[in-house]
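SAMPLE LOG
Freezer: B-3
Tube label: C17
Construct: single chain, 133 aa
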Amino acid sequence: MKVVCDTNVLIAGLVAEGLCRDIVKRRLPTLELFSSPALLDELANKLREKFGLEPDDLPILAAYRRKVVMVRPTVLPKPVCRDPDDDQVLATASAARADVILTGDNDLLALKAHRGIRIVSPRQFVTRLDQSD
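STRUCTURE (predicted):
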């Protein structure tokens, strides 16, 4: 399964125990992961600004960076979401020809899909993975 993981899920997995931590540590490493420079920059900036964490000091993030395949986001013909950062997620997933966008962002989740790419919450993601086992 080809997955683009929104930064909010990665941040939740890095800073708190729970479902997102399980996803980041156990489930993502078994999948095809895709990202873009813009998404990784957003992740690094939010970790620094909101949590005072230096991304280079987080081993789990280093493992994610080694695993992820970088793509150049496609240009969306027009804005889709009210937040331009969300459009970056959609553009990255389109370029990766992803199967799934994993996010906790309600603006993205409301779309349910974009260009045939399913947009799912962490709970929906885990349920889908468990059903395919």
